[in-house]
Amino acid sequence: MTIWRQPATAQEINQRFSADTVNGLLGIRITEVGPDWIEGEMPVDGRHVQPFGILHGGVSVVLTETLGSLASVMCCDPGFGAVGLEVNANHLRPVPKGGTVRGRCTPVRIGRSVHVWNIELRREDGELSCVSRLTTAIVERK
User: What is the pTM of this model?
Assistant: First the structure.
């Protein structure tokens, strides 16, 4: 059984949400959608690093918020959307320039008006680089 009320494939999400957005600018790509999770990845190149040649923490948060927001929207009834209320992140290990960071988003709570998501980012070697939690408010689209 799936949690998605507005299901979409990774390819459909990438086509819809990449052009002229921060996702496209940073090369964020959804790679897989499961029954209750969504995964994505992002290269780590000159657009993404801080002066020491490792992934900038703020860019990690962009990836985590992207995964959580997309998941939240897919859980909404038609005519409703999600807006971020709060995001936090703990940066555990550096991701070097030239690598790729991959994320998996899973639900903590999917309520009627608030969703909470857990997002884990991993380096290419499988090591956990960042854990994040995103809270979204569910709003009616005007």
Answer: 0.96
